[in-house]
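Entry:
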Amino acid sequence: MHFIKKRRNKPLYKKFLTLRKNVQQRQKLLSFKNKKWQKFQQNLLLFKKKKLYDPTSYFISTFLTFHSKKFKNNLHNKQKLSLFYGNLRKNYLKKLTKFTLQRFKNLHKQAVFLFIENLETRLDTVLYRTHFCYSLANARQLILHKKILVNNKIVQSNSCMLKKGDLITFDKTAIKSINLNIFKIKNLSIPPKHLYVNYKTFQILTIDNANYTNCLVYYPF
């Protein structure tokens, strides 16, 4: 008989060990007591005390050649970016890079600005930045369950790009869970400047297009 191997879904927080960085700024990682997490916590404390100190540069790596080190750095940067925006797929990131490079073929800096602006105008990131959802996974769960409306229309795609003048509202059945989500968030930061948020009526209005300078507050890389 042909046996099919069952795949186990590994938790996302285990990927932070290889990267040696708390990409999503989760406080849950600081409460783990295993030895592997103690080294991770020590590296985070050193990085906070000395901002110029990079703990990853002091580890002896198995990658010896220049090309292998470059491949390793590129791979880690891709993983950090995908985890920061809720574990995005490679195909989606490739399509988005092609879209940005086609518009700015020679100007690479402007292409990078537009790339980050497109990621910040996603529906799931906007819900997370405005603190209506405590995580990107929670935002995607609400979108899939048809609890979010854009211009009075149900939207089920997480990668829906918001434009100037778009209005986001919530279903009445999801208001209780959204209230609990706001209380769960400990470190409340200011919402982006291109968004107008009304916490009484549970509405989000996009006043202007996302700017790269405003996005840098949330982008840690």
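The two ends are 50 Å apart (CA to CA).
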